[in-house]
Amino acid sequence: MSPANVVTIIRFILIPVFAVLAIHYATTIKAGEPHELLRWLSLSAFILAAAGDGLDGYLARKYGKTKLGAFLDPLCDKVLMLVGLIVLSQVSWSSHGWLIPEWYVVMVVARDVSIATGCVFILLLGKKLQVNTNWSGKATTTIQLFTLGWVMLKVVPFSPLVPTVVASVFTLWSSWFYVREALRQLQPE
Length: 189
What we know:
By secondary structure, the protein is mainly α. The chain has helices at about 5-30, 35-65, 65-90, 100-125, 135-155, 160-185. It is globular, with a radius of gyration of 18 Å. The mean pLDDT is about 90.
């Protein structure tokens, strides 16, 4: 197994570690006795899983990319983001009830499902799928991470609704890009 794939598998293992620690931390808050060590351990697991994306990319470029890695790496990124959004929309990391709004989680899931459906549709029509990225997709991911960090770091005393609204604008914008891209690929050659 390639070094990059090993890092990606470790990243996958860190995702449930983050989720379990996050839920336990929220339970201590609800009980009125927050255990900050749980928060920092959960946050560390999340950061390591997210930062591992850069490491596995570097290792893939240095030692060679694999088909397995080309599939697992973006899947891991997506699972990490979705688990983070889902967990932090269900359990509060604040006595103020800070939650990522559920409507935003639905929006992100709907966007990802529509992108996957579009890819399958293009392939079923016998067309060659071209995976083209755009700055709006990368900006959306960055702002989603910022929103999760807003909740987990507790640096700013404002509701996570503020970054969530910004993230939703970028999510919609990137959705529009992917719809246009799918329509372009469906045009007769």
